Protein: D-alanine--D-alanine ligase
Amino acid sequence: MSATSLPSSRIADAAVFGRVAVLMGGTSSEREVSLNSGANVLEALTARGVDAFAVDGIPALATLLAQGGCDRVFNVLHGHNGGGEDGVVQGLMTAFGVPYTGSNVLGSALSMDKVRTKQVWLSLGLPTPRYVRLAATADAQDPASATGRMPKAAVHAAAAELGLPVIVKPANEGSSVGVTRVFEDAQLDEAVALAARYDGELLMEQLVVGDELTVGILGQTALPSIRIVPKGAWYDYNAKYIAEDTQYLCPGLEGEAEEEIRRIALAAFNAAGCGGWGRVDVMRDAASGAFFLLEVNTAPGMTSHSLVPKAARQAGLGFEDLCWRILEQTV
Structure:
């Protein structure tokens, strides 16, 4: 396997960045993770001499932008509905002409919608698990219901079409929020009820049995893959952010397989209109060795458990260097 080749850093003087707002927190379901990520990024940037400061959420950022209070934004808001991965805050920053880290409006909005991301990938021949879109319908007792309910018959028909086991999840959430692995028909209704607590459509996806991997993207470089080995049955929220017994093997693969997963991940990232930095999650089928794309994260976690910093370290970039490289893409 060839070594990861990263372009040289372009900026040596922190003063070039001016005042940098580290956008964190917000009101999405991933608020706590974002606050953790933001605190780490803020510490790293200030340690390198950057004039950086914290901003919590989109309303505070809007006020700051209106006042001309920053020169650029390091976005580590996670999720949507007050998070920073759905294109809303990107549109705000674009309107004010303030540079920011990560993907633009299109890449952020598209990647937040797992169904439509899959549609783009499939149109380009990129591999992703078979799926069924579960569109919520209004409650028969209250047609104006905002939450809606999924007809049970449609849910069970979708599972029969895909074949168990399947995964049921919200189409617009991250961090394994609202996700259930379903192995028996009797589990379907409860899985849908959990996913339906969150806004938007639901997604039922064929469960790929095999290794769970992820590939960090920095610019146009795919970082070494990481194979995730949780102690439990799968890589859920607890394994991602709380447990200390999850294993991260980096690089996750060797030889041609490692080259292929990096190629597919970068192609998927670009196909979704993403840029700057991010992370692409992939499953590898245990029986065939085939790769299946799951989703793109356009503002990945930067916590002690997070994966992009682990991959960057394997490629020779420490956490402070990684934050610097991400920020210098805004200049």
Residues 138-148 have pLDDT under 50 and may be disordered.
